[in-house]
Amino acid sequence: MLQSGAIIRSRYKIVRLLGSGGFGETYLAEDLDIPTSPKPKCVVKHLRPQSSDSAVIQIA
Length: 60
Prior knowledge:
Blueprint: E1 7-8, E2 12-20, E3 24-31, E4 41-47
Antiparallel strand pairs: 1-2, 2-3, 3-4
């Protein structure tokens, strides 16, 4: 689970958890890359791999 305030990919700041399920967690986040104030909100899906086998998991 990601913590509130965590920054993902140097762009998305986690605001709060919206929900979780079998595939992962869904978070409300702020898009820090957009040059406006207040920062626009977006949704970030943090997926959980079904396998821990490194041959199966690929980083995009």
